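To close the section, here is one more complete example, presented without commentary so you can practise reading it yourself. The ligand is magnesium ion.
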Amino acid sequence: MRIGTGWDLHCLVSKRALVLGGVVIPSDKGEAAHSDGDVLVHAIIDALLGSLAKGDIGSHFPDTDPAYKDADSMQLLKKVLSEDLPPYHIENIDTTLILQTPKLRPHIEAIRKNLAKAMGLKLEQVSVKAKTAEGILGELGSGDAVIAQATVLIS
Ligand code: MG
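Output:
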């Protein structure tokens, strides 16, 4: 067995979609990024690459590469799962999102289902939790940033 952790942060700006785990969440603001900015999928990719000691998302998919402009992060995740993960497989993933607004509770199950389907996992292997920043911590508390953390166990 091997374990990996991932962490990511994106600024939230107007006229961008808020994409979390491949699900578009109704919101006034979305992630500013070279790709679609899916902070949750980026953290999961980093956790997977970390568990394999194979570098990080930036070394695999450089944001200076025009190929990844507005990239669908779910496709990047699928590439890691098919090309980097074997012969290992995922036992479970556990993630936490930190976002002041909008409230994520109504969307958590949709995010879990979408991740499980995309990753070929059962729903009970995918945990997604969400918290606010209690209105503090600068941009996080004012709703101008989002953080995602992920832990993955592979065997
Ligand atoms: Mg990112």
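Once you have examined the tokens, check your reading against these statements. The chain is about 25% helix and 30% strand. The pocket of magnesium ion is lined by residues 8, 10, 33, 39, 42 (CB under 6 Å).
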